[in-house]
Amino acid sequence: MGKILVTGGAGYIGSHTVRMLVDKGLEPIVIDTLEYGHREAILNPETELVVGNLGDTDLLGRIFEYHDIDAVIHFAAYASVGESMSEPEKYYQNNISAPLNLLSVMRKYGCKTFIFSSTCATYGNPQYAPLDELHPQNPINPYGMSKYMLELILKDYERAYDFKYAFLRYFNASGASPDGLIGEDHNPETHLIPLILDAIQGDRSHITIFGTDYPTQDGTCVRDYIHVNDLATAHLAALDYIKTKNESVVCNLGTGVGVSVKEMIAMAEEVTGKKVPLQYGERRPGDPPFLFANPAQAKSILGWEASYKDVREIIKHAWAWKTGIKSGKFLQ
Ligand code: UFG
Questions:
Q1: Catalytic hit among 12, 123, 143, 225
Q2: What is the structure's pLDDT at 186?
Q3: Could you list the residue range(s) of the whole structural domain that residue 61 is in?
Q4: In CATH, what number is assigned to the domain containing residue 150?
Q5: 319 within some domain
């Protein structure tokens, strides 16, 4: 196989996938703006990092001209639901316009394999759970809509230009590499597990539980937390599938296990042996009460399933990353 262009490869999920590609003897090239990504998250010093934007046609052209690129794994995107509500244009520019440019350059150079980091946010409010891939897609925020629109565009690229795609619809990406070398480091941080661990560590005063009157087991929102390394292995499986079968594939990536916010807090206390300082707040606008996957299709088509089904292991790795030598932060 030729090389694999990984967009957003210095980001959270991208960097874990790049590491795994290298471990499997594949050759990734990373393009990342480093706006949210971290140079140090690319562990292999021989992996080429191109700092730049997917909207830069000349830069992309030079990458494809110079390297024999066989497939693209596309992570680069803005991914904050709340921000997408107030700044939709930013999301449509970065999550649709820039990858459209990439698709055009791919087409020019005859590269037709696209592994796409999609999301359960493309489903919108769940009509049933667990969610399978046939659940209607009605995104309720510009972030989810931007991912859905790129899925639609890719379907046309398949029909008209014979592209093959994998739509990997993640549930809640979480955890860190089990050896603690790379992990989650967003600024600002909005995700539940790092916020809980920050509160335990005293890096923030408390965590606020957003809503306690949801129709769930304990009134708090239920989500499906999937280990970042499991997400990474799914990308490799999808790449292998497209290359061997020459077929596109759509898969939900989750564990199938729903965990409530209160359950998460209790398990974080159990894993760390420390109390979580907490407050109760209003519902956060746009939060569906429950979201968890039916991951059967990923198993039957890709032979993939989550290896970390107990969320305590996810918390354990996130905690090790946070309290490790880097104190949970990359250098830049
Ligand atoms: N939560 C709190 N307090 C906080 C932060 C989060 O109670 O301070 C709750 C949220 O209400 C939610 C759960 O914890 O119920 C998880 O929240 P996250 O912000 O960690 O994750 P989301 O489920 O909102 O978002 C994730 C991904 C998005 C994706 C979305 C799909 O981060 O990229 O799932 O719904 F779009």
A1: 143
A2: 85
A3: 3-174+225-253
A4: 3.40.50.720
A5: no
